[in-house]
Amino acid sequence: MKLIEFCHRKIKSVHNNTTKCESLDFVEMVYSNKVYPLMYCRMVIQGSFDIEKLKKAVYLSSQYVPEILYIYDFKRRCLVDRGLTVENVFILDRVGFEADFWWDLSRNAQLQITFSKEEQGNIMVIGMSHILADGSGFLQYLYLLSSLYNGASLGNKLQNTRDISPLLKNIRVQSETEQTKYGKQIEVSPLRTFNSGTKFFCLNSTIAPNDLTAIHVKAKKSGATLNHAFIAAYARVIARLQNTDKIILPCPADLRRFQLEQDNLTVANMTGIYKTIIVEINPQHTFSETLSQVCIEMTLQKNRCRCFAGIWLLNFAFHKTPCFVLKKAIKKSYHLLPVSYTNMGIIDHEKLYFHDCNINKCYLTGTYRRPPDFQLSISTFRNTCTLNCTLIGEDVDESIGQFILEQVKKELLKWIQE
Fold first, then answer.
1. The model's pTM
2. Taking the domains of the chain in order of start, what are their residue ranges?
């Protein structure tokens, strides 16, 4: 009897300390051998930053998002408590720690914080598993962590929602656009060559507040958004580098904007993809003509809810279909292109701050891309926009990556001078 009671307690304990994978988490897991599911927030902080207070904040945040201290079991498709603590999250006082930013999610926590005191200030990199959350969910966690560091008392009512089912109610996905149908015939060439390099590069180029404001004003006058302008600039750079007149880009979209209230805590994967944004660029096309194309296509796809395409079926089949069948279905439906784009949005400085400190620089990045893949990531903090790419490769990849970032920036700055 005692043995049976012990087994029941053990089973109950395991059950209570396991979080099942959701369908969009699984999409990130399927491609982990090619694009390892990690993302980062990088900060330069001046002032009396208190590491012990941050550790306490991480502990308190685990009451709302316990999975930050779990490992991910790739075979069972779930996040599992293996007894990791806050101390397992931190890597402290290490200079030149770029390679530490790539860690094994099946052995370590889904959160990692690297902190080092250097001449330019305290350098902090907060990394999170993309299996646990998308970019918007990551930002929500950063705001939660910041508020707890600053002494906020959030009570027991706050809960994290990971289920995407509420997002799918009353959503009607309409037909593909003509550009999307046409884009299926277009081949996508990489921006860099394959190599076996193992160096890690985090590259960025910034657009100053005055210039970003000018870009925003001009985009608004054109009936476009900042995001449309960034995509247009990126597409024009790709067209020149590849000597082509037709560009195809996948573009992520935050599904929360269609349904959920903004105050909800959703540290989860709730991102769909406009799978094919087609841009035709002839040598005689001006930036404004390219922007107009992007704006029309993005507006059509948004109005038709194209970022939800296939997600309802995936979510319906997820807990009813064998793992190997789902993997094949996802790889057939969600193709990873060697050239990609993500706008990780605005980092709200009124929500991300630490008492007695100033954050001088802050930006978000995606995972480190192996050759020949390349992703442009964009984020904005205090009206300073950071264009970023994170690469694994050789020294030549660093040169290529920085050149692309500078060319995208140049396209935008040239446009506002026209």
1. 0.94
2. 17-152+165-417
